[in-house]
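Lab notes, practical 5.
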Amino acid sequence: MAVTCLLRYEVRAEHLADFETYGRKWITLVGRFGGEHHGYFLPSEGASDVAYALFTFPSLSAYEAYREQSALDPVCQKLFKQLPDFVTRYDRTFLRPVFDGQEL
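Output from the prediction step:
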């Protein structure tokens, strides 16, 4: 069963452009590790420090494999180290997606 990860970030407002660059890199990387990235969603109106990201893996075990592989990948390691520069906090929530026409 597929699993979607919803990430909620509290972004330092002065680093929003840097965070956008960071997010664009992860969109490509998640695909390389077998997931489907649905994009980053940055503040537009309202709260100016909250951003979201959504990506789906075919299963929880596929997501766990991505976590293990990305922890060893030099590009991912560099990005992991940059995150505290842009973000004061982030939370991860796992959801079961329901896509149009999908049968159980």
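Observations recorded by the TA: Residues 16-32 form the longest helix (17 residues). Strands lie at 3-11, 36-41, 50-57, 87-95.
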